Structure formats: structure tokens, C-alpha cells
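quick q for whoever's on today - can somebody do inverse folding on this one?? i tried earlier but teh output was garbage lol. C-alpha cells:
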């Protein structure tokens, strides 16, 4: 049995960018494409998205704004931002507001993109594992509290 593919959502108003990412990564990832933030949010609602990559400069909403929105509703989704512009302000905003995992500069080398997405997938898996362990520990803690309460009531 093979492990399920991670789902990657690419949001860019340039269809060629989405198509090139899909062509590069489709064998290892389920790639969803969106041409704007609204379409990207619809994909987030309809699919279990693990990694989201978005362009910074898009009509109506920036990539940082989109990632900030997504962070609130989908905190485990790994957020990546890319841009073709050397805009220091957007990088700072991305880090501070969108809590991005990685910032990529267009054009990227295919190997660099593959490595960045692989690292994002590993980070997603780590976060899921961590959340599972926290749930297990909380369950055990609840059981221990119940036992302690029962022991305290049994005291003469």
C-alpha cells in the first residue's frame, strides 16, 4: 500500500506558473490550481490541502493577505509565498502576518522548488504527528485526573 499524496494548492494569476508547478510535481503531489484568492479559498474549503503556494502580487488581494486568512482557518496548512519582485516589504509582511514556511523568488530552479515543497510536506507531517501526540497526552492526562479524583474520594 502506498502512502497518500500530499495535496498542494498553487495560487497564481498567471496560468503558466500553475501549469509548470503541476507538471513538475504531479507525480509526487496532488496539485490543485487556482487563478485567484477566491478560487484558492474555495479549494481550501473543498479539499484537505496540506501545502499552499501563492504569488504575492495578484489582483484584489496579496499573497500575504491570502495566507493570513488561511492561517486562521487552516493552521496546519504549510504556507509558502513566491514573487517575481524583490519586494522587501512583502517578505517582512509575509513572515510577520502570514507566518510563512518558505519564501521563493521567481523564477525558481525546478530542483529548488521540489526541495522546498518536499520540506513543506515533511513539516506538515511533523505538525500532524505533534498534534496527534498532544491529543494522546491530553487523553492520558484526563484519565490520570479521573484516577486521582477517585483515589482522593476513597481516602478515609
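ok took a stab at it. sequence:
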Amino acid at each position: 500500500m502506498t502512502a497518500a499524496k500530499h495535496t498542494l494548492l498553487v495560487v497564481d494569476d498567471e496560468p503558466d506558473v500553475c501549469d509548470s508547478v503541476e507538471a513538475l510535481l504531479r507525480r509526487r503531489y496532488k496539485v490543485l490550481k487556482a487563478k485567484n484568492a477566491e478560487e484558492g479559498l474555495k479549494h481550501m474549503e473543498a479539499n484537505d490541502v496540506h501545502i499552499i503556494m501563492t504569488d504575492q502580487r495578484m489582483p484584489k488581494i496579496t499573497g500575504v493577505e491570502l495566507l493570513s486568512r488561511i492561517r486562521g482557518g487552516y493552521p496546519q496548512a504549510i504556507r509558502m509565498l513566491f514573487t517575481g519582485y524583490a519586494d522587501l516589504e512583502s517578505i517582512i509582511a509575509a513572515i510577520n502576518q502570514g507566518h510563512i514556511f518558505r519564501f521563493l523568488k521567481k523564477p525558481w530552479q525546478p530542483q529548488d522548488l521540489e526541495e522546498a515543497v518536499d520540506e513543506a510536506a515533511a513539516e506538515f507531517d511533523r505538525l500532524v504527528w505533534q498534534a496527534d501526540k498532544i491529543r494522546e497526552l491530553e487523553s492520558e492526562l484526563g484519565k490520570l485526573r479521573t484516577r486521582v479524583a477517585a483515589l482522593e474520594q476513597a481516602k478515609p
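fwiw The two ends are 56 Å apart (CA to CA). also The domain at 6-125 is CATH 3.40.50.2300 (Rossmann fold). so keep that in mind when u check it
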